[in-house]
Amino acid sequence: MTISHSRIARFTGRTLLATAALASLAACGGRERPTADLAAAQVTTIGVNSYLWRASLETVSFAPLLQTDSAGGVIVTDWYANPSNPRERVKLTVSILDQDLRADALRVAASRQVLQGEVWVEAPVQAATVQKLEDIILTKARDLRREAVAG
Predict the structure, then answer these.
(1) What is the pLDDT of residues 124-140, one digit of tens each?
(2) 101, 50 in Cβ contact below 8 A?
(3) Based on the number of CB atoms within 10 Å of its own CB, is 16 exposed (0-12), middle (13-18) or buried (19 or more)?
(4) How many domains is the chain built from?
(5) Which of UniProt's keywords are assigned here (predicted)?
(6) CA–CA gap between residue 46 and residue 78 (Å, rounded)
(7) What angle do CA 113, 117, 120 make, to 5 degrees?
């Protein structure tokens, strides 16, 4: 099997971009928080906030999982086509960016394709769709935390 130079260049470019993104994230932080807030919000044994992790897994459970990394906080689904609309499919990536249960500790990215003839073609995803998924995950995570604290 031969790999074209353009595929190697794309792979190398993506690798460099991912490395740069991770390096910039590593530079973030340094904010001080009271110990009581940390104890309440940082309930984790997996590298990321466990409530966000569990809520994310539950929310995307309708789609087959392609990759999960609980230490890095990444969930990637495979393409999913709703049986009622098989000419459209979506793929999701959920990233948990912090150990705290906060809205800015969660990012959802979605890709959408539509079938045109025999070929899947990229299509836009409405920003409201991604926001709705983030809201669902955050609500579930807060509910899980409330249940754990009450129980």
Answers:
(1) 999 999 999 999 999 99
(2) no
(3) exposed
(4) 1
(5) Signal
(6) 23
(7) 20
